[in-house]
Amino acid sequence: MSPPLRMGTAEWSLLILLSVLWGGSFFFYKVLVAVLPLFTVVLGRVGVAALILNAWLLARGDPMPRSRRLWAQFLAMGLLNNVIPFSLIAFGEVRIASSLASILNATTPIFTVIAAHGPTDNEKATAGRLVGVLFGFAGTAVLVGPAATHGLGSGSLVGESACLLAAISYAFAGIYGRRFSGLVPLKVATGQITASTVVLLPVAAAIDRPWTMPLPGITVWLSILGIALLCTALAYIVYFRLLAAAGATNLLLVTFLLPVSSLLRGWSVLGEMVVPSAFGGMALIGLGLAAIDGRPARRVRYLLPATPARR
């Protein structure tokens, strides 16, 4: 049996970096979906990222592998990790508030703990993990605020279901992606994003017909570049490096950190007010992450005096 996967300082740093990179996608999506149709936005995100990563590998003289079996796996990963969840979230956010979507997205680690229990031998569901994901989910709900759930179940079931299905897709992507642990993260990210682009090209062409739309302005082009370069190309290099080192359950804790990242960005950059309940939400998320990490509990047990043995 493989030893349990744990988070060290490097892995926690990468997780925080990933939350910052993915947190920025909400801003870019807000700009893009107001101007472009759904599949064109998703194609722009993965297509530009694929061009950037393939050009980088070409410039390095480091070509992608040509194995058909490996490319079939890249295709499956692209569907689970890009095409399906990106499209579902964009579809859902047209019908529900983005704050509610972020709460539903935070169910990803719950689905991951459940899904990883059977097929893995070092990511089994433990009491600490189950308690941790429940604390994290509760913290996300408190952090985002009760106003986000006011529309829950009232005429927006389709949008809510879409976001939950996206979370399930992300969970299975994290488990499926473990098979790429022997490959360089840059090449795994390039393969996944390139395969996603190939799938989305005919879909966007048939449904959106983007060539019939007026040429977008500079703000839209900069948003596409930002979401492609930072939130997709760079983010997925970090994603696959972290997945290989820490496993799917630990990796997808990033969904708990996304609202924290957005809150801190709004406070530090935009001067937005932070309500007192937000600190309670962040505290709950911190407790959840600590419970899943396990080291604080082990440290407490180490410091407590040993219980005398009964005679």
Number of individual domains: 1
The backbone outline, from C-alpha atoms, is globular
How much β-strand is present in the residues? under 5%
Poorly predicted segments: none
User: What characterizes the major β-sheet?
Assistant: none
Radius of gyration: 20 Å
How many distinct helices?
Answer: 12
Question: Termini distance?
Answer: 36 Å
- How helical, in percent, are the residues? over 70%
Mean of pLDDT:
79
Order of helices and strands: HHHHHHHHHHHH
How many E-type strands? 0
Q: Which structural class do you get from the secondary structure elements?
A: mainly alpha
Give the helices and strands, then pairings.
Layout (H helix, E strand, L loop, with lengths): L8 H25 L4 H23 L7 H26 L4 H8 L2 H10 L9 H18 L12 H20 L8 H23 L10 H34 L2 H16 L6 H18 L1 H9 L8
Helix pairs in contact: 1-9, 1-10, 2-3, 2-8, 2-9, 3-7, 3-8, 4-6, 4-7, 5-7, 6-10, 6-11, 7-9, 8-9
Would you kindly provide a written description of the structure presented here, covering whatever features stand out?
The chain is mainly alpha-helical. The protein has one domain. It is 74% helix and 0% strand. It has helices spanning 9-33, 38-60, 68-93, 98-105, 108-117, 127-144, 157-176, 185-207, 218-251, 254-269, 276-293, 295-303. The chain is globular, with a radius of gyration of 20 Å. The model has no long low-confidence stretch (mean pLDDT 79).
